[in-house]
Structures are given as structure tokens and as C-alpha cells.
Amino acid sequence: MFQQPDLFASVDPVRQPPSDDLNLPALIERIADVSRRPRYAFMVLNLIAKAAGRNSGSAGPYVLVDGERIPLRDWLCDSLVPIAQRDARRLAIVDEVRSGLEAQKALPDDPQEAARVVQEEVKVRIRRSGRCNVSRAVSDLVRAGLVRRHYQGFRVDHHNRGAQREAVYTITDAAARALRA
What we know:
The structure is a single chain. By secondary structure, the chain is of the alpha+beta class. It has a domain at 19-85 and 129-180: Arc Repressor Mutant, subunit A, CATH 1.10.10. The protein is built from six helices and five strands, in the order ααβββαααββα. Strands 1-5-4 form a three-stranded antiparallel beta sheet. It has a two-stranded antiparallel ribbon with strand order 2-3. Strand 2 and strand 3 (68-71) form a beta hairpin. The chain is elongated and about 60 Å long. The relative contact order is 0.20.
């Protein structure tokens, strides 16, 4: 007997929960299905898994680095900076920062100190844009069913719902097993 297919049934394979038999190639394929930047999203997923460790599967809201608590998204940004060391956009930011500080006469006379000031400002700018990039990648990972996201911290009445709260990312068991395999 012929059955009419349900025209309103969801056929989007990305929305389905991750299966328990997810392997690394399937994980990469799932990321590629939802992300415009799958390599970047995969690197973010791998870093989240490293920060989460094997015990809880959750990373954040802070990561301890050299005794200092750093917000998870900032740590992810800082961890991904070496990838962009030779990127033309990063080199342009360095030139822009240096020329801006020179125009303001805010650079010290000592060349080493001037280089440190420039690097600090570049780090601030890269971290600002990097937080957005990390958030987009995590949104892709959430859509792929590989990460769950929530926020933790002090909530205040503010137009920005995330005021004074930091992200916590929890990697799914299937994704963690695929990364370990």
C-alpha cells in the first residue's frame, strides 16, 4: 500500500541528535555540513575538549593559566592566535596600531617598550574580533549537536542578556569519543 510522505517532516540531517557511533570522519562531515569555516570550528571543538578534560565534559566559565583565571572565550582566542601570525590582516592590524600610536605620540622612545605596547594593543583588538569568531564557531557546533552552551555568573537587569556572565561549553559524549579515537 502506498503511503503519502509527510511533506512537513523535517529531513534536515543536521538537526538530528548525534549518534553514539560517531567517528572522526563523521564528526568532521557533520561540522562541514553546518559551518562556513569547518576547519576553524573543528579547532575550536578540539580546544574545548582539551579544556573540558575527560571528567566533566564542560569547559568554562574560566580556564586557569599560570594561576590566572581567564574567560574561556578569551583563552580560546589566545590559543588560536598563532594560526594568524602571518595572516595579511593581522600584519595590517600591526601596521595600523603602530601608525595610530605614532600619530597620537603614545609610543615610548625605547624600541622594545614600543614593540610591547604595540603587541598589547594588537592582542586587545584580535581578542575582540576573536571572541566573535569563537562564538560563531560554537554556534555552528551547537547546531551540529556536538556542543551545548550555557552562561554562568552574576546576572543583572541590563539590556545585554549576557551582562557579567561567561560562556560554559559542554562537549557531547559522542563528540568526545570521536576526538579521543
